[in-house]
Amino acid sequence: MENEGKRMDGIKRHCIKGIVVLAGILLVPLLMPANSFAARTSPLIIEHNCTDITNIPESAINQAKADLHIAYGHTSHGSQLTDGMTGLVDFANSGGLGLSLPEDIFEWNDGGTGGALDFHDYAMGGDCGYYPQWVNNTRAYLGEPDPDTGRGTAHPDVNVIIWSWCGQASHRTEQEMIDTYLDPMTELEEDYPNVIFVYMTGHADGTGLEGNLHARNQQVKAYCEANNKVLYDYYDIECYDPNGNYFGDKLVNDNCDYDSDEDGLRDANWAIEWQDSHTEGVDWYSCSSAHSQPLNANRKAYAAWWLWARLAGWNECLEAPSDLTATLDSETQQITLSWVDNSGVISEDAFIIQRQVNGGAWDNNYDTVAADITTYVDESLSPGIYAYRIVAHLDDDGTGNPCDSQPSNIAEAVFDFIFSNGLYQYDGTSWAQLTTSDADNTGNTMVAYNNGLAVNFGSLGLWYYNGTSWSRISTNNPEWLTAYNGSLVGDFGATYGLYSYNGSAWSQISTSDADNTGNTMVAYNNGLAVDFGSYGLWYYDGTTWDQISTSDAQWLAAYNGKLVADGGSE
């Protein structure tokens, strides 16, 4: 299987009046005079690169609703497409993915009332895995072919039919796929020349690249590419996450489970991982998704609308750029992009740089460069994860309208923060400098205390930071710091011993100093555990000291109400 979906070069599109969709097949009648439908001159493959709903122009969505009349036949797996389309309506209305489109623009219903897409769900019973039932049900739904219109007499407006598979594609032999699917589809196309039948691949089943399902899906795709058919590549969409990461070689199944460590067992789920790292209602939406996860149904819906737009005449017009790379120069804080220009006879007027920062919404118009330029430098960056893709743009597609290619592959660069002098604070998203002075790191000289931070700056003394400003709390330089039960404790060496600070004043709690050859002073059990070297290990409850071991420890730590001491090796 190719890891990158093929993009069509110079595909010509036709406006379509009606569409019928059956599980695994899509039928679309075109808005053309009877007997004048021109055969496709190139294939139309809808796959994972056709899942960016933000790239479909509003005009193309409206054209699809004006021109298409679709009928869809499916069982449970096929409902991912329609459940995703249903959830998309509210998601887009609320501005998900940064969409800013008219209210209910993605609405659909049987009949296309109220400005919705005319989409007859469950128009035909079963799915295309049941042969010859799916063929008979298609013919019964469309009615006898009308030689004057090239459509069916029972539903003369329907110009697109699409069927989906359940699990049967996994068990077809090569010849059975021809006899029960490819040949019958071709016969339907011949009998109803002004209806577009959309081919479909079967859902992922976890058998990987060596499995029969992969071979059959590739057989269907190869047939569509060789014979200029329309294919909704259901399988390919399930093999990629929104970032373009490929899972087809990781035993991915219909639930999006995959084998993350090549041990032959599925132990991760790409959809759940992506959902958990992104914001619901902003980056994705919850919806029903039979046998799978919501994100999978989201992407099926995006690809469906890409299909409808293309069938209704949306002209991408240009081959997408490819081989995009993003190279970080940490010293100059710049990322350099480089890509391959795949334009042929028709050359682009510009390239659009699209950018995503830290997994957020895509900025689909981040910047542009002129035609034939295949590099770009993104400057003055803040630390973060930057993802890019490139779109070839044409000002006029020959009809007076602009058009864009599909996006290129996604390239990422991670810009880590570069520390100079001083202390820096990280808030979970970005770093900020707190001070140009650095701590005296000869011991544990920087600790969390009283909802702030206590830092020993050596000769500058001991300071407290409350999140906004610094204040000095001691002119002395402690060898070690720790905090316990709301108090700060400093080990000021053999001359002064241990002192406790309550937020306003210091008080001596021991004339002895800790054995600071390691982490030998820790908060424990609402008190303090201290290793005094040859004097052993002691516990301080805020008032009195108790010896808890005659041995000294090389290192101390506390966890879950327990104290752990490293006694070293003999």
Features:
alpha+beta; 3 domains; 5-stranded antiparallel β-sheet; 9-stranded mixed β-sheet; Neuraminidase; Immunoglobulin-like; 9 helices; 570 residues
Provide a compact summary of the structure.
The protein is α+β, with helices and mostly antiparallel strands and 570 residues long. It has three domains: 20-311, no CATH class; 322-415, Immunoglobulin-like (Sandwich), CATH 2.60.40.10; 423-566, Neuraminidase, CATH 2.120.10.80. A hairpin with a 2-residue loop joins strand 28 and strand 29.
Any overview of this molecule?
Strands 1, 2, 3, 4, 5, 6, 9, 10 and 11 form a 9-stranded mixed β-sheet that branches. The radius of gyration is 33 Å and the shape is elongated. A hairpin with a 4-residue loop joins strand 30 (498-501) and strand 31 (506-510). With 570 residues, the protein is of the alpha+beta class. It folds into 3 domains: 20-311, no CATH class; 322-415, Sandwich (Immunoglobulin-like); 423-566, 6 Propeller (Neuraminidase), CATH 2.120.10.80. The two termini are 59 Å apart. The chain is built from 9 helices and 37 strands.
